[in-house]
Specification:
88 residues; mainly alpha; 5 helices; 0% strand; elongated
Length: 88
C-alpha cells in the first residue's frame, strides 16, 4: 500500500488516510471494517458510479442526487478527520 506523506512527515492522518485499507477490506467482503477505516468510501463509490451513469443517461433528478451524495461524502470525510484529530 502507498504511504501517506503527510502522516510520514507530521505523524497526523490526512483526510484521506484509510481509504486504501478500507477499499481492500471492502474487496475482502468485510463491509463493517471498511466503514470503520474510512466511512466515506461507499458514498464516494456511489457518487462516482452514479455520476458516470448520469453523464450518459441524464437522469431527471441526477444533479440533485449527485449533490446530495457529494455533501454526504464531504461531511463524512470532515467528521472522520475531525474524530481522528480529537483522538490523537
Amino acid at each position: 500500500m502507498l504511504t501517506c506523506e503527510l502522516k510520514k512527515i507530521t505523524g497526523i492522518d490526512c483526510p484521506g488516510c484509510g481509504i486504501q485499507r478500507s477499499f481492500y477490506k471492502l474487496l475482502e467482503g468485510d463491509i463493517i471494517e471498511s466503514v470503520k477505516l474510512f466511512p466515506a468510501l461507499l458514498p464516494l463509490f456511489f457518487l462516482i458510479t452514479y455520476t458516470l451513469i448520469h453523464s450518459k443517461l441524464m437522469f431527471k433528478n441526477g444533479p440533485k442526487i449527485i449533490l446530495s451524495l457529494f455533501i454526504i461524502s464531504t461531511l463524512l470525510i470532515v467528521f472522520n478527520f475531525t474524530y481522528k484529530l480529537v483522538n490523537l
